[in-house]
Amino acid sequence: MKNSISLIAPAKLNLNLYVKDKLENGYHSLESDVCFLDLHDEINIKISNINKIKLSSKSIFFLKDENILSKTLKFFNDEFGKNDKFNITLKKNIPIGAGLGGGSSDSAALLLGLRYFYNINPFNSEKISLKKLKEIGFKIGSDVPACIMSKSVKLTGIGEQLKKIHIEKNYKFLLIYPNKTLSTQKVFNTFDFKKVRNKKTMYFNKIKIFNSLTFTSQSIEPEIKKILNILKSFDKIVAFGMSGSGSSCFGIFKNSNDLINDKEFKKLKLKKNYFIWHGNKKEFGYNRIIY
After folding, report:
1. Domain 4-164, what architecture?
2. What b/e readout covers 215-228, taking b as 16+ CB neighbours within 10 angstroms?
3. Would the CA dihedral through 227, 228, 229, 232 be positive or negative?
4. Most buried of 43, 79, 83, 172, CB within 10 angstroms?
């Protein structure tokens, strides 16, 4: 029986985000087409005699705390009446407060890892289903069930309704993060339906690129507007927008040459205050154990 595994926790990209209604419980009803990128955190989980959660020294980004992982471990153990102990190490490559679902994806990967150890334990007669795991994930955060799936989905409601969708795979994605953290809670608390702006319609194949939160997010963090203007200047960009509640923005290109040979990309690489990533979307699925 293995006593240690490592799992991938991929970045989530909201190709669009429609804020529908504010519900009585304070949440907002949403609709979003989501895909996952080959930019990911890595979580190592090792059976231990004490709980220890730490950040890898190889991380690109550094958290002030690891509350989401502590919360996930507690929810899991409380749900199944366990008190199992683990040494958990997080290698953080996804920007924080960037609208890329990094925290939710980390929680989802940890849940999948804890489920693995639970299900291979011969003393646990009843196995944990993926459906049950998503129910636990939803209690932790509304994005966690989608991150457990880590496949292209249409998300509706407050994150509990997920439907698989097809998104073309041969396109290149550019991410620009201005190293400015945005609080999702602050963005939604500031959001005003009357201030949603309908700009020129853009499509990525049949998917409309739109974000109800763009005006609110860029009023809190003006750097977002600057990045969107940079993306607009690319000659062969298919579509561009802001992911989630920001502050990361994305561009979509037909191929690598359309991206890396553009004069705007060459200027962009000179901006040392930006985190820039480009690569592919990927359908990960549930089995994200890498060793």
Report:
1. 2-Layer Sandwich (3.30)
2. bbbbebbebbbebb
3. positive
4. 43
- Single out the catalytic residue among 41, 143, 258, 262: 143
12 is a catalytic site residue = yes
258 is catalytic: no
Inter-residue long-range contacts of 62-66, CB under 8 Å, 24+ positions, other chains counted: 62/92, 63/90, 63/92, 63/96, 66/90
Neighbour-count burial of 110, counting CB atoms closer than 10 A to its CB (0-12 exposed, 13-18 middle, 19+ buried): buried
**Sequential DSSP letters for 97-155:** TSSS-HHHHHHHHHHHHHHHHHHH-TT--SPPPHHHHHHHHHHH-TTHHHHHH-S-EEE
Structure tokens, 129: 């289903």
**Helices assigned H by DSSP within the chain:** 67-80, 102-120, 130-140, 144-149, 184-190, 214-220, 223-232, 256-260, 263-268
pLDDT reported for residue 65: 55
- Residue-range domain boundaries for the chain: 4-164, 172-279
Q: Catalytic residue, from 12, 92, 151, 180: name it.
A: 12
172-279 CATH pick, 3.20.20.70, 3.30.70.890, 3.40.50.1440, 3.40.1180.10: 3.30.70.890
